[in-house]
Amino acid sequence: MAPTSRASASARIDQIANHLDSKPFLELNTPFSTERSSRSEDERGNIKRPKPQEKKPEPKLQQKAELERPKKMSNQKPHPALLIPGPIEFDDAVLDSMSHHSESHVGQPFVNCFSEVLQNLRKLFQTTDPASQPFVISGSGTLGWDQVAANLVEPGDEVLVLHTGYFADSFTDCFETYGVKATQLKAPIGDRPQLDEIEKALKEKEYKMITVTHVDTSTGVLSEIKALSELVHRVSPDTLVVVDGVCSVGSEEIRFDDWKLDVVLTASQKGIGCPAGLSIMMVSGRAIERFKARKTRPTSYFGSWKNWLPIMQNYEAKKPSYFATPSPQLVHALDTSLKQILSRPLDQRFADHKAASQKVKKAVADLGLKQLASKPENQANGMTAIYLPEGITPPDVLPNLLKKGVIFAGGLHKEIATKYIRFGHMGVSVTDPERQDITAAISKLKESLADSGYKA
Fold first, then answer.
1. What is this structure's pTM?
2. Do 120 and 86 belong to one domain?
3. What segment(s) does the record annotate as region Disordered (predicted)?
4. Within-domain flag for 383
5. Angle 425-370-216 (CA atoms, 0-180°, nearest 5)?
6. Which stretches of 278-347 are assigned E, i.e. beta strand?
7. 53 located within any domain
8. Whole-angstrom Cα distance, residue 428 to residue 341?
């Protein structure tokens, strides 16, 4: 082979090798990448392997078959109970709604359904103000961040982001993508910024907006929204109050009008109990006026309220309208879920979640374990983030839980991802008295920890 030919072949091999490099060119900033690496590598980057478990005598054939057969929780195909902080388990009727026949997204039957969904969202968020506006757009909760950053602030504007975990970092990244200047006010892991710290920050600089993660899915920290909003309206009344409620709507109390909130954004697959795929928001009249007063056009096309606001207003008024195709089947599922939620007093729903949460947290304490959110006032009602015993990591526990028919989530906060797991307890697993998801999960957690060598 000629020298030039050999050099060319070598260059091609190097190029292929680069594509096969296990490390990405840019660091992944996703929950999946963090969760994945936390399960397989320690803090120094060394591969972690699950501890070998003591081999137990094989059960008799009949007993073994019974152990391996998942219990039927509903009319769905038998499956492990999904008890992560979202997606959650779904009610049969909600899933049945997904099998609705195909229909036109501008046909009157679907438009009527969408109208009901938007009206029922007002009830869920507890707003009767006709100036406020619900939005339902195909996408995830992250699309809510995009809408806020693209529509309510402009490049160069200042926003204050209250930090209680991973998702404040991501919201900050979203703002900076749109040229907005985001300042984070951080708290120690498991805690939240205190009101006096927030007041000090608001007096030091003029912020167009303050954002707070109601429940940070990475830490299980619950933020106080009512007192925060009162503070902002007193100290910096022109600052919009934006709540990331992805992991709180449906399991935590939210009073949109009474608490004078400007935006609450969420997604379909958590406390609302609907399959993933819908970005849901409630927006105040004050925020809509701020949008209309923009000096520059929105910095997103798909997420622009210039396109979506008239569509939502028309759908709610039962008028066919079109900008981008919605998901009729998901909207039908959301319709069913909202009707189920609103069939009982909301206060009872929130009380049910609190009771389930207290049950989980008592079990955690009885096991001699600690939560990331150590203070009771910081503890979410829809999930619990649990520190594992010293020397035990998520790969030692999660696969064993799966074998026992329960799915928990690994750690997500980058600084401590290998030290804890997350237990989601919201929606039908809490509100359906026929289901024993929570009780069974607590029992299986105890067993899995014992299998890993932990003695409570």
1. 0.86
2. no
3. 1-81
4. yes
5. 50
6. 278-283
7. no
8. 10
The list of the chain residues with pLDDT below 70 reads 1-73
Tokens of 158: 């200042």
> What's the one-letter identity of residue 452?
S
Same domain, 359 and 337: no
Report how far residue 396's alpha carbon sits from residue 49's, in angstroms, rounded to the nearest whole number: 8
Q: What is the DSSP letter of 404?
A: T
| pLDDT for residue 113 | 98
Domain boundary among the residues 342, 364, 384 is at: 342
Sign, CA torsion 109/111/113/119: negative
Token representation of residue 229: 């909003």
Say how far apart CA 227 and CA 232 lie, in whole Å: 9
- pLDDT per residue over 69-88, tens digit each? 445 567 899 999 999 999 99
β-pair partners for 249: 252
The whole-angstrom distance between residue 446's C-alpha and the CA centroid of its chain comes to 26
CATH number at residue 237: 3.40.640.10
Do 72 and 220 sit in the same domain of this protein? Answer: no
The percent of residues in the chain predicted with pLDDT above 70, rounded, is: 84
Helix axes 346-366, 328-342, angle to 10 degrees: 90
Residue 411 near residue 445 (C-beta atoms within 8 A)? no
Q: For the chain, what is the domain count?
A: 2
User: What CA dihedral angle connects 104, 141, 394 and 33, to 10 degrees?
Assistant: 90
11-59: pLDDT as tens digits: 544 543 444 444 444 454 555 444 444 444 455 555 555 555 555 555 4
Out of 342, 368, 401, a domain closes at 342
Domain that holds residue 265: 100-342
CATH number, residue 398: 3.90.1150.10
**Could you tell me if 283 and 129 are in contact, meaning their C-beta atoms sit under 8 angstroms apart?**
no
Express each pLDDT in 240-261 by its tens digit.
999 999 999 999 999 999 999 9
Look at strands 81-82 and 406-407 and give their pairing.
Answer: parallel
Q: What share of the chain is helix, strand, coil (3-state, %, to 5)?
A: 45, 15, 45
For tokens 């990591």, the residue is 393
Residue 326 belongs to a domain: yes
Residue type, 133: Q
Task: Round to the nearest angstrom and report the end-to-end CA distance of the chain.
Answer: 69
Distance CA 441, CA 263 (A): 35
Specify if 330 maps to a domain: yes
* Pick from 363, 343, 344: nearest CA to 441: 363
Same-domain check for residues 75 and 172: no
